[in-house]
Amino acid sequence: MCCDLKRRFLLLYATQKGQAKAIAEEIWQQAGAHGLEADMHCISEMDKYNLETEKDPVVIVISTTGTGDPPDTARKFVKKIRDTTLPPDHFAHLQYGLLGLGDSEYAFFCNGGKTVDRRLQELGAQRFYDTGLADDCVGLELVVDPWIDGLWLALKEAFLLQKEKEGMSSNVDAVSSSLSAAPHIVHEQNLSSEVQNLKLEDGGLRNSDLLTQKLVDINLVASTGETEPSLAHSVPPVSQSALNIPALPPEYIEVQFQDTHGENPHPSSLVLEGTTFEVPVTKAVQLTREDAIKTALLLELDTAETVFDYQPGDAFCVICPNNVNEVEELLQILGLSEKGDYFVCVKVKQGTKKKGATRPQHIPERSTLKFILTWCLEIRAVPKKAFLRALVECTSDVGEKRRLQELCSRQGASDYTRFIRESNVCLLDLLHAFPSCKPSLNLLIEHLPKLQARSYSVSSSNLYQPGKLWFVFNIVEFPACPTRAVSRKGVCTGWLAELVAPLLHPIKNNLDTKAVSRSTEKITIFARPNNTFHLPADSSVPFMMVGPGTGISPFIGFLQHRQKLREEHTDWEFGETWLFFGCRHQDRDYLFKDELRCFLENGTLTHLKVCFSRDSSTAEIAPPKYVQDVIRLYAKEVARVLLKERGYFYVCGDKKHMADGVSDAVVDIISMEMEVDKLEAMKILATLREAKRYLQDVWS
What kind and span of H or E run contains 473? Predict the structure, then answer.
């Protein structure tokens, strides 16, 4: 009888890097405790579900990638529902709830979810639960956790409504009591009441054990004299609170050590996105002075022997390894130093409770342990709460165990944000902070995400210098801090800097493309074309470029391309070009200074406007410090190019500290020059974005 009353709902996820899938799996796990059955599928598996005939409620978890695009796994689905021949009542029978994931650091926040949500509404579908939009910038869990909590009541009401429609009112009470009898998770409005009762959803520990942990932790705080919380220590009220911690994720990976004979796969075999190319690094130039705050490098790749092609404005990805010293340190802490060169076989654990468990695609069936930790797993990833929950079970010290529980609990949410998320803590930092934590290898494979290839903007033109590709980057630095005992460099930028160190030319060397280096170093790349961040198809159209710091990178490619077109097509009409560039110091980090002067002199670049944020000035009126301030000085020209002459406006660089400021400046200019209020000016800018005439290539 109970089984008959277990109601089904369809659970779909669309993921790019695994977050949406992990959240869907959490919903699937909790569903059983509520007397429900989640029929879970990746949204790409369209042969396993059919929304056209679906009668049960549908829950969708979907992320956003690129410049507001749905994830790759949702492309076919989105294309299908965007069919303009579909009638407006196509999904009139459908009830759904949608959780979108995004990052407000980027333009088009949660646009993947918004796109699907909007289209389902246009096709007549009805929401049984309000759409949730979770922001990875501040912490997905701030929206995800209460959204999941509220989901169960919303599903219950949807089922009751469904039964009433089906004329089966006699069973309504039975379904209601079935749902009510399940372990209770309070609706969003009543989250605070959960604090009153310690509830471990996996039932892994007895109440007496929990009370002991609580008392021990209080005594630890008192004895150590800690008055401020840290990664490893808590203070009241968290240290004295009853905790709500997540369910223990079921283990699903089994690792078997074999011998030391054989060959590892090539790292390029882990790439599923397209064709990879192994290309030599033929030049490396440091563009900044030694005393600059950031070190910028330009690398030149030789693509002549490949079919790799690109347009100015495109991006490409570099396959990079984890830092060799960090891999060795991790092996040592795990007690596996002697096993690094052993081949391991990774399989799904027999009898696992994880639904649809499969070996992660980024883990080879057979490779050495060192290969997995070097090329497959993002060991620098900020640990998710589910990972912290799993680490609790691997920790022997009772105080450390309690602190890890706090960090993954509702009550410790602010500590998690402060000491893990915002501090960019990684697994190594955790293992140093909690020395009694000894996770198994299978746990790392289950919880560490895929090591992602890093994306860079192309800084050259194939027309200007065939067979060559330039790109520019700052060497990312993570200084030591209370949660990180040692300073670190970025995974990819640190590796590239070390790789090309023997090649580096001093800044006095120019960027003559004919210079030859005796490099044998090669890196593996693959294309990541940008469908919109390109030069106008019509050469007579004017355009403006805003690119402070390394944000200038794609615009060097733009200008190289434009110069070559001017040389080859003397009869063409070319629109004016503007570049707004900024850096800290004119004599330390003014990137491509000589090249920009040449572009100005030969007419490729019509206007160059620069600013220097850290240089002192003796002028009566201080010059502007930032590009957004310079743009305001040329308000009439911006309005003319963008609005009257239907020109293009490109922005590249840091989002939070620059691109948003530039956007605000353009809104103010539109408002002033068109004599409209700010809201109307924002709408005009939105139409320019939609028309692909205001384009951004930004990062956080």
Answer: strand 468-474
Cis peptide upstream of residue 237 (ω within 30 degrees of 0): yes
pLDDT at position 585: 96
Kind and range of the H or E element at 241? none
Q: How is residue 444 annotated by DSSP?
A: H
Task: Identify the pLDDT of residue 519.
Answer: 58
Are the C-beta atoms of residues 594 and 558 closer than 8 Å to each other?
no
- Where is 426: in which H helix or E strand? none
- Measured CA to CA, the distance from residue 616 to residue 628 in angstroms comes to 19
- Coil, helix or strand at residue 320: coil
Q: Round to the nearest angstrom and report the end-to-end CA distance of the chain.
A: 54
Single-letter residue type at 116: V
Tokens 């369209």 -> residue = 46
pLDDT at 164: 78
Phi, psi of 102 (to 5 degrees): -160, -170
For residues 507 and 459, the answer to whether their CB atoms sit within 8 Å is no
Continuous H helices in 225-342: 324-333
**How many Å apart are CA 471 and CA 459, to the nearest integer?**
5
pLDDT at 227: 79
Element (H, E) at 280: strand 276-286
Amino acid at 553: S
DSSP H stretches of helix in 454-502: 491-500
Model confidence, pTM: 0.81
Would you call 361 exposed, middle or buried from its count of C-beta atoms within 10 A (0-12, 13-18, 19+)? exposed
Token pair of 503 as six digits:
């090649």
How many Å apart are CA 297 and CA 314, to the nearest integer?
A: 19
Task: For residue 221, count CB atoms less than 10 angstroms from its CB and return exposed for 0-12, middle for 13-18, buried for 19 or more.
Answer: buried
Report the alpha-carbon distance of residue 313 to residue 459 in Å, rounded: 8
Q: How far is CA 312 from the centre of its chain?
A: 24
Mean pLDDT by 10 residues, the chain (700 residues): 66 90 88 90 94 96 87 92 95 96 83 95 96 88 91 93 68 50 38 33 36 38 64 94 90 93 92 89 96 96 96 95 98 96 95 87 93 98 94 97 96 93 94 97 95 95 97 95 91 97 67 51 89 93 98 98 97 98 97 98 98 88 92 97 97 89 96 95 94 90
The residue count for the chain:
700
**DSSP 3-state assignment of 377?**
strand
Would you state the structure tokens that stand for residue 333, as one six-digit string? 């802490």
E-state strands within 630-672: 648-654
CA 5 to each of CA 35, 155, 159: distance values in angstroms, whole numbers, following the listed order: 8, 14, 11
Q: Is the Cβ–Cβ distance between 12 and 116 less than 8 Å?
A: no
Strands 543-546 and 522-528: unpaired
The distance of Cα 230 from the centroid of its chain, to the nearest Å, equals 26
Tokens of 244: 């709500």
Distance from chain centroid for Cα 42: 19
Residues contacting 674, CB < 8 A, separation 6+: 639, 643, 680, 681, 684
Q: Give Cα separations from 151 to 9, 97, 130, 289, 649 (angstroms).
A: 12, 8, 9, 55, 43
- Strand partners of residue 101: 134
pLDDT on residue 447: 94
Helices (H), ranges, 54-140? 75-81, 111-122
**Residues 346/486, Cβ–Cβ less than 8 Å:** no
